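About this split. The held-out portion is used to measure sequence recovery: a designer receives only the structure tokens and must propose an amino acid at every position. Recovery is the fraction of positions where the proposal matches the reference. Here is one held-out target exactly as it appears in the evaluation file.
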């Protein structure tokens, strides 16, 4: 316990810890201003939609309808030549006894894009029904301009909150706990104070374990504080117990990774570099069987 208390005091005095703590506080305090900035950059107003239309059928009527919508830039390809480029959305059209249309939105502006394309598709549906002698449908789902912009703003705010803010406030303390452990252990190795601790009736494994415990305590308290603070800002977070449990387990694994790297390399710079590279790969690689970023986001969103 004495080693844990000592490590906690050392962590609280670390400049990197204090600076990162203030950065996270700043992020939460100015969350509203950050959202306003994001909306200013990604506002749908004035942004055109790149739509790839994939079909091997005659789409003369749809082409005419889409050409009347100045916000949509359609690109037509066949099913034999599906040249995927950087489009905002892809529309698949298959004609048989009925016409089936499938829309896949690839851009973060999903609400705005879906609403805008839907207007043209509803016009196309009405035209097809008219040519087939079917009665026209009463369609009341076409949104007004203000509704589209408002929903797009809500979508961007929602995505920014759950894809950026919450994961950042959880993964940053976890990353920092590993960095602090590396700093503390390498500093003691450099000053030879670790050798003094070894003379005490405590095993080397016990010393490392208590250092790991101290780093975990600081990290978990940070995550818990941020989650509670974010909820007081009116941001709803679902599955908080599961979220904290997963964060704690992931934190244990990362701090143990930092401990292993430090024990092997015994050098602060090389340990930092290797730990950071592995951390980034684990968090940002989507192809992993268990992707921490995806899990945290889905748990928070509910």
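Reference sequence for scoring:
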């Amino acid at each position: 316990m004495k080693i844990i208390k000592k490590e906690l005091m050392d962590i609280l005095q670390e400049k990197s810890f204090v600076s990162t703590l203030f950065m996270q506080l700043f992020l939460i305090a100015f969350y509203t201003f950050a959202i306003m900035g994001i909306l200013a950059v990604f506002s749908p107003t004035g942004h055109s939609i790149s739509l790839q239309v994939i079909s091997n059928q005659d789409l003369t009527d749809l082409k005419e309808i889409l050409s009347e919508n100045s916000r949509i830039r359609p690109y037509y390809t066949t099913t034999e030549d599906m040249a995927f480029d950087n489009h905002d959305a892809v529309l698949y059209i298959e004609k048989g006894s009925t016409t089936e249309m499938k829309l896949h939105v690839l851009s973060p502006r999903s609400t705005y894009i879906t609403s805008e394309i839907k207007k043209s598709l509803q016009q196309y549906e009405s035209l097809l029904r008219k040519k087939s002698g079917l009665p026209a449908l009463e369609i009341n789902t076409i949104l007004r301009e203000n509704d589209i912009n408002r929903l797009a703003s809500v979508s961007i705010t929602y995505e920014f909150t759950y894809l950026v803010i919450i994961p950042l406030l959880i993964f940053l303390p976890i990353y920092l706990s590993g960095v602090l452990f590396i700093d503390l252990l390498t500093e003691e190795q450099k000053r030879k104070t670790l050798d003094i601790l070894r003379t005490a009736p405590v095993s080397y494994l016990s010393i490392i374990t208590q250092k790991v415990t101290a780093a975990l305590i600081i990290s978990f308290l940070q995550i818990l504080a941020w989650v509670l603070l974010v909820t007081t800002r009116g941001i709803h977070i679902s599955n908080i117990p599961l979220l904290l449990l997963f964060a704690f387990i992931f934190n244990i694994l990362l701090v143990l990774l930092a401990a292993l790297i430090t024990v092997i390399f015994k050098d602060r710079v090389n340990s930092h570099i290797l730990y950071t590279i592995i951390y980034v790969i684990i968090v940002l690689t989507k192809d992993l069987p268990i992707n921490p970023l995806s899990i945290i986001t889905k748990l928070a969103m509910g």
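Annotator remark: Confidence is low (pLDDT under 50) at residues 138-154.
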